[in-house]
Amino acid sequence: MNQETLDCIKGQRVCRYSNYKDTELPPNYARLNYGDLKSLHTNEATDTDFLTPELLSGSDYCSSSSVEVSNHRVFLAKYGKLPNVYDVYGGYGTFSVAIRLDSITPEMIEDLNALEDYPVLDEDDLGEVESETEQESWDSFVRSDFIQELTKKFPGLDLTDLSNDRLDILFYNLMDRTNTYWEHEAGNTAFIRLKNMVESATEQDITEAS
User: Fold this and answer.
1) What is the spatial distance between Cα 31 and Cα 22, in angstroms, rounded to a whole number?
2) Model pLDDT, residue 185
3) Is the domain of 114 the same as that of 151?
4) Which of 2, 72, 161, 199 has the highest count of CB atoms within 10 angstroms of its CB?
5) Which pLDDT value is given to residue 82?
6) How far apart are CA 164 and CA 171, in angstroms?
């Protein structure tokens, strides 16, 4: 292992592949199970062990965010077809990248070192991930919460005629009016503070949206 690789893996999570069947990675694997990667001390690593960079890793229940989700997919889009670079999956939405130490290229090292200075590989992709997360949150629960808050404020108005498209327009108009923004949390989730938005709404807003 050359000095450049040794410097790159210092302080990072280095793992050895091992499962109940074998300690040798089967050929033609496209993905690895996180549970089959056992952490090592860096000084125990050999060329056939794996680097799993923290800023390319996360799960639904850890401190990862849209940043790690974006970095993971950007890195795999760039290097995922190279030999010994694996997409890693696991329970509770766990994701990572495993790179065999003897297959780390100078370009990979450059990108990984850059993450130490600024933790985002691609700002445009990060924006796309955040937009996708916001849309998913809107579809999953924020739209229904928004309707509920509007109903509380305007109990005499019938909101059943508001289509999803009309609700979308009303929602984003109130966001702009109140300078309210989506907030992103661990696990790549997004929420928004609806109370001030709905407080600013008027009956005319509802009527015009109908």
Assistant:
1) 16
2) 84
3) no
4) 72
5) 94
6) 10
Residues 18 and 98 in one domain: yes
- Look at residues 158, 171, 165 and name the one whose alpha carbon lies nearest to residue 201: 171
Among 60, 89, 121, which residue terminates a domain?
121
CA 49 to chain centre: 26
What tens digit of pLDDT does each residue of 14-64 get? 999 988 676 677 666 778 999 999 999 988 899 999 999 999 999 887 767
Which residue ranges of the chain lie beneath pLDDT 70? 20, 22-23, 26-28, 63
In this prediction the pTM is 0.87
For the chain, what is the domain count?
2
Same-domain status, 98 and 145: no
- Give ∠ CA 191-193-194 in degrees, rounded to 5: 110
Same domain, 98 and 9: yes
Which pair of tokens denotes residue 76?
Answer: 């795999």
* Same domain flag for 58 and 111: yes
CA distance 25 to 102: 14
Residue 39 shares a structural domain with residue 63: yes
Residues contacting residue 200 through CB under 8 Å, at least 6 positions apart = 174, 177, 178
Residue 22's pLDDT is what? 66
Task: Return the percentage of the chain with pLDDT > 70, whole number.
Answer: 97
Domain that holds residue 64: 3-121
Angstrom distance (rounded) from CA 38 to CA 36: 6
Place of tokens 């940043």: 67
